[in-house]
Amino acid sequence: MKKKIQLILTKDYAHIGKKNKVIQVTRGYAFNYLIPNEIAEIATKNKIKHLKMFQVIQDKKLQDNEIKAKQLENNLKLIKKISFLKKTGDENYIFGNINEKDIIEKIFKFTGIKLNKKQIKIPNIKKVGKFQIEINLFYDKYYQLKLNILPINI
């Protein structure tokens, strides 16, 4: 009789590993704790093959997204800064505000790339000046872009 059996984790479990990881544990631990609590299931050849197929698909998507992020970064490097002209009141406070939609339109005008609103982080802009905005390219990869707010002389 085998002392250890293979299981596939169905949930993240701190002591053993992440979801969909193939592990080897003792039979008692598997049948008395992991399987009844639905933390793991018995690993068959077909289930392992299925997991590997999904992992290959996931890796392919990740590579495609990285390539798209690199292309987006190269296109954004062509833009040195984005400038907006705004009417100002007392002490250089601007009328209205600058939001993600305005920035998306400017970037689309210069590069032809349509960004998602959730990809852009902008500070709260109330005055004329220079600001930094962050564009999320891919998971933890950000691109910094300069933003100038200039007053309109009336």
UniProtKB/TrEMBL annotation:
- Give the UniProt record's GO annotations in the biological process aspect: translation
Keywords, A to Z?
Plastid, Ribonucleoprotein, Ribosomal protein, RNA-binding, rRNA-binding
Q: Which InterPro entries match?
A: Ribosomal_bL9, Ribosomal_bL9/RNase_H1_N, Ribosomal_bL9_bac/chp, Ribosomal_bL9_C, Ribosomal_bL9_C_sf, Ribosomal_bL9_N, Ribosomal_bL9_N_sf
Q: Which family does it belong to?
A: Belongs to the bacterial ribosomal protein bL9 family.
The highest taxon in the source lineage is Eukaryota
> GO MF terms on file?
rRNA binding; structural constituent of ribosome
Keyword RNA-binding in the entry? The reply is yes
User: What's one GO-annotated cellular component?
Assistant: ribosome
Tell me the PROSITE patterns matching this sequence: RIBOSOMAL_L9
What's the protein here called? 50S ribosomal protein L9, chloroplastic
- Species annotation: Delesseria sanguinea
- The UniProt transmembrane annotation reads none
> What NCBIfam families does this protein's entry cite?
L9 (TIGR00158)
Taking every annotated instance into account, which residue ranges of this chain make up the domain Ribosomal protein L9? 17-44
Q: Does the keyword RNA-binding apply?
A: yes
